[in-house]
Amino acid sequence: MFGRKKKEQDFHVDDRLRSLAIIMDGNGRWAKKRMLPRSAGHAAGAARIEPVLETLRRIGVHHVTLYAFSTENWKRPREEVDAIMDLVYKYLDEVVIEKIKRDDTFSMKFLGDKSVLSEKLRNKCIEVENMAADREFVCNVALNYGGRDEIVHAVNSAIADGITTLTEEDISSRLYTSHSPDPDLIIRTGGEFRVSNFLLWQSAYSEYVILDTLWPDFGDKEIMKAVRAFYGRRRRFGGLNKEETLKK
Length: 248
What we know:
The protein is α/β, with parallel strands linked by helices. Strand 3 (106-111), helix 4 (119-131) and strand 4 (137-145) form a beta-alpha-beta unit. Helix content is 42%, strand content 15%. It has a 6-stranded parallel β-sheet with strand order 3-4-2-1-5-6, with helices on both faces.
């Protein structure tokens, strides 16, 4: 299916790759290399989102999760944080809402605690979510998101429901991502080798692909490189594949 002779536009994934997540790293370094303010890097990164989503949809991925802003990112300079939040609002208002209106297969959900966002941004996120539900393609945006915080939130939700002995399903069903499958593939741009508190529960058996490419430079070539790497691996989920079982 992923032979090199096939043209990229002919590629199509199967059920082994239903859900994909991206840690969008490198906006600041991209700007620094060009002697631009970090805000310019974030703007360039935002411009990459729609074309990347379109390529992933074209090849058959139905759930995409983007790491936009972590619970730890509040530690950054106030000026940068404010610029990011303004950019998120503008992107939702000018790009995402129009996309939802013209494309009845697209939806967007937000992962994380919205309560600490500004009222203006929080209401915009809710507006976007309410405009589209139960659609074929889901883009999850992790905004004020932390994997540990998410697990604590899920456990507290179960306790509030009177559950005293938790199962994995009790937690999974209360995660922010309960509407999407766990990611089969997680791509990290920018070359860093760490998970950064992202989808800690959901990524137990995800395949990771780390690319040196900075997020504003991420495109179709990098997508296909990561997808090919994914299909070149044997996912065992803690067990053995058929060949290894026979040898044993």
